[in-house]
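Morning, I've got a small favour to ask if you have a moment. I owe you a coffee for this, so here goes:
>
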Amino acid sequence: MTPLSRRAFALTATASLLVGCGGGPRAQQATTARPGRTPPPSHASAKPVRALGRSVPVRLRIPAIGVDTPVLRLGLAPDGSVRVPPVTAHDRAGWYRHSPTPGQVGPSVILGHVTVGAYGDGVFRHLARLRRGEKIEARLENGTAAVFTVSAVRTVAKADFPTEDVYGDVDRPELRLITCGGPRTGDGYLDNVIVFAELTATTP
């Protein structure tokens, strides 16, 4: 992704996250602290893993929190914001198709709901429970699996969304998982939960 397109992505994605988190009937309290300013996440592994070629993610598995979901492709809404997954009974995560695919150099971004309206819990309902060192597997269209290790989990106020940390340039394959969290207000949530992870293995 070029610097210009990454900046545009950061602006539109942030705007969509402020409003598109699938509010529902139950409040979800985040299980991590709400820091005001936090340092960049530390790297989970000292050994670099060779980056993969571009291949679209088709499934996401996070064993520690019971996630095993197909992955949708998300584009832009008519207003220029990033689409979020549809609110349905069978909630799925969605990969923003203008970000790197999982395993490519750069921050690959996957979004999911914490709640899905009258349907109840969303696919990322337990995202804030993830801890450093736990594994995330993205299965790709070409049959490869990109395995990431969590390096940090942050819960931040939406007004203080760390755009540069989430979407800025990185020199290795990384993954960002994003949902809503914290106290509810009206039909939305006050915070975002953001998981930072880096590529630590690949499997055929």
